[in-house]
């Protein structure tokens, strides 16, 4: 049964078209204008997630949108989170908690229970907020999945939402993608589509205008605005396509190489490092780039044992071991920390099952348990406060039988030995004092001349500044009132 709610859905011509950031910008814009607004995404497929205050897990993009809206992040904002563990299987997080798996063959027809939970979560938000700004997933024109859809036009139909489609002009073909999106929708879905937003434009707008006019004439829908290309934005991406979107640091004196695992998770851990003046961060699968970096980071992984085997298949284990032997800094975070252990035990088959030899760079062992650990821990290192979050099955402990165990030191919730550090804590580098103290230690060990820039803004301040810049750009390109008019006008306007 269709429910008429006060909201708006931002869909996209493709994944990574910019709908997450446009939704975040709209959340900030509505909040600025005194409207109690909540973000929403029925289903997020991403290994970048965040832990809410109540210990539940949601997609990182929806957490950011809640921050933009000035709202407390909660599970209703992202009721279904699918975390890919392989090309054919995703782990389900339903209402913030683990809820089994979804196989590729079930994607079109096996999600009815997920749709029910998503619709209930949306209605809950709509009852408590003035406006709900929803983000779609992928493209609404994926007609092969339309029967079981509850995140794009399925959500729009169920909740009576007007839809705006965002397209990335930097990829090329955006006008054709928009025209084709409308053309592939059935008439009942087409009624909901109210306009277009062109995103990531750079150049002379006068050259684009004839194309926009043609698009409006052919589709009968207005181009609501053209959002310019914005530099220096790395806001909590959810899509693997967006990884490594940072700008190169000017005059960088400290270089960080992060390994791009096939099942990388919570890559946003590196954002705060990339934001630090004088630090350059790049994802890589090259052994030579690992050798040249001041710091190598093994980030999180949704499939630790599989990604560890991949690491070895490319010879990256040898490059990492050589660094450690030479006293060059190496850091492992969550899954990356587990890889640094001497051994990984998975008796319950949480991942591949059985036992795997780790890299042996820390005198630790990992035991995968059935229960998933979610939390918002705090701690200190070298006198600096650290606030973080954790999402993991594996428990890492010191193994006294391993060589070097007596030399291991505490590092957050994990351990360090020499120039090798490991922790399961995500988001720790967003703590400014800790981040700068750690990078100072890295610079000292690697011989880099890097030092913290006096007076540099903190990471939270930079995030707020970027959200404001996004909202300013959307306000200039589209305006608050046209978006509010769409919300108030609903589908029939």
UniProtKB/TrEMBL annotation:
<keyword id="KW-0169">Cobalamin biosynthesis</keyword>
<dbReference type="InterPro" id="IPR011698">
    <property type="entry name" value="GATase_3"/>
</dbReference>
<dbReference type="Pfam" id="PF01656">
    <property type="entry name" value="CbiA"/>
</dbReference>
<dbReference type="InterPro" id="IPR027417">
    <property type="entry name" value="P-loop_NTPase"/>
</dbReference>
<dbReference type="InterPro" id="IPR002586">
    <property type="entry name" value="CobQ/CobB/MinD/ParA_Nub-bd_dom"/>
</dbReference>
<feature type="active site" description="Nucleophile">
    <location>
        <position position="334"/>
    </location>
</feature>
<dbReference type="Pfam" id="PF07685">
    <property type="entry name" value="GATase_3"/>
</dbReference>
<dbReference type="InterPro" id="IPR029062">
    <property type="entry name" value="Class_I_gatase-like"/>
</dbReference>
<dbReference type="InterPro" id="IPR004459">
    <property type="entry name" value="CobQ_synth"/>
</dbReference>
<comment type="function">
    <text>Catalyzes amidations at positions B, D, E, and G on adenosylcobyrinic A,C-diamide. NH(2) groups are provided by glutamine, and one molecule of ATP is hydrogenolyzed for each amidation.</text>
</comment>
<keyword id="KW-0315">Glutamine amidotransferase</keyword>
<feature type="domain" description="CobB/CobQ-like glutamine amidotransferase">
    <location>
        <begin position="255"/>
        <end position="433"/>
    </location>
</feature>
<protein>
    <recommendedName>
        <fullName>Cobyric acid synthase</fullName>
    </recommendedName>
</protein>
<dbReference type="InterPro" id="IPR033949">
    <property type="entry name" value="CobQ_GATase1"/>
</dbReference>
<feature type="domain" description="CobQ/CobB/MinD/ParA nucleotide binding">
    <location>
        <begin position="9"/>
        <end position="234"/>
    </location>
</feature>
<comment type="pathway">
    <text>Cofactor biosynthesis; adenosylcobalamin biosynthesis.</text>
</comment>
<feature type="active site">
    <location>
        <position position="426"/>
    </location>
</feature>
<dbReference type="InterPro" id="IPR047045">
    <property type="entry name" value="CobQ_N"/>
</dbReference>
<comment type="similarity">
    <text>Belongs to the CobB/CobQ family. CobQ subfamily.</text>
</comment>
């Amino acid at each position: 049964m269709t429910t008429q709610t006060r909201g708006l859905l931002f869909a996209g011509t493709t994944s990574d078209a910019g709908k997450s950031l446009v939704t975040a910008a709209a959340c900030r814009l509505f909040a600025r204008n005194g409207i109690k607004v909540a973000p929403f995404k029925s289903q997020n497929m991403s290994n970048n997630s965040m832990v809410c205050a109540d210990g539940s897990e949601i997609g990182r993009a929806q957490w950011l949108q809640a921050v933009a809206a000035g709202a407390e992040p909660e599970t209703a904002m992202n009721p279904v989170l699918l975390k890919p563990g392989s090309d054919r299987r995703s782990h389900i997080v339903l209402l913030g908690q683990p809820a089994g798996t979804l196989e590729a063959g079930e994607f079109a027809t096996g999600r009815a229970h997920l749709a029910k939970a998503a619709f209930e979560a949306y209605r809950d938000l709509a009852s408590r907020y003035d406006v709900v700004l929803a983000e779609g997933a992928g493209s609404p024109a994926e007609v092969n999945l339309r029967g079981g859809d509850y995140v794009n036009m399925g959500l729009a139909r169920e909740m009576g939402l007007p839809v705006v489609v965002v397209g990335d002009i930097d990829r090329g073909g955006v006008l054709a993608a928009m025209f084709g999106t409308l053309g592939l929708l059935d008439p009942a879905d087409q009624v909901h589509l109210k306009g277009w937003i062109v995103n990531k434009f750079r150049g002379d707008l006068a050259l684009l205008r004839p194309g926009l006019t043609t698009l409006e004439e052919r589709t009968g829908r207005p181009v609501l605005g053209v959002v310019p290309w914005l530099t220096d934005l790395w806001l909590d991406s959810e899509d693997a396509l967006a990884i490594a979107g940072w700008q190169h640091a000017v005059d960088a004196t400290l270089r960080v190489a992060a390994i791009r695992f096939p099942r990388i998770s919570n890559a946003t851990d590196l954002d705060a490092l990339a934001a630090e003046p004088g630090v350059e961060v790049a994802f890589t699968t090259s052994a030579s780039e690992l050798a040249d970096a001041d710091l190598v980071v093994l980030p999180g992984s949704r499939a630790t044992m599989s990604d560890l085997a991949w690491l070895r298949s490319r010879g990256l284990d040898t490059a990492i071991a050589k660094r450690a032997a030479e006293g060059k800094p190496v850091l492992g975070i969550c899954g990356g920390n587990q890889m640094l252990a001497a051994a990984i035990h998975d008796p319950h088959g949480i991942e591949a099952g059985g036992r795997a030899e780790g890299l042996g760079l820390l005198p630790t062992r990992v035991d995968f348990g059935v229960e998933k650990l979610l939390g918002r821990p705090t701690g200190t290192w070298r006198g600096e406060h650290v606030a973080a979050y954790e999402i993991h099955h594996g428990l890492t402990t010191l193994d006294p039988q391993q060589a070097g165990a007596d030399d291991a030191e505490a590092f957050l919730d994990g351990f360090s030995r020499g120039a090798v550090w490991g922790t399961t804590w995500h988001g720790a580098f967003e703590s400014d004092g800790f981040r700068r103290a750690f990078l100072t230690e890295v610079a000292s060990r690697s011989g880099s001349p890097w030092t913290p820039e006096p007076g540099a803004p903190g990471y939270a301040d930079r995030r707020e500044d970027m959200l404001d810049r996004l909202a300013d750009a959307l306000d200039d390109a589209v305006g608050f009132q046209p978006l509010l008019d769409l919300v108030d006008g609903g589908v029939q306007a």
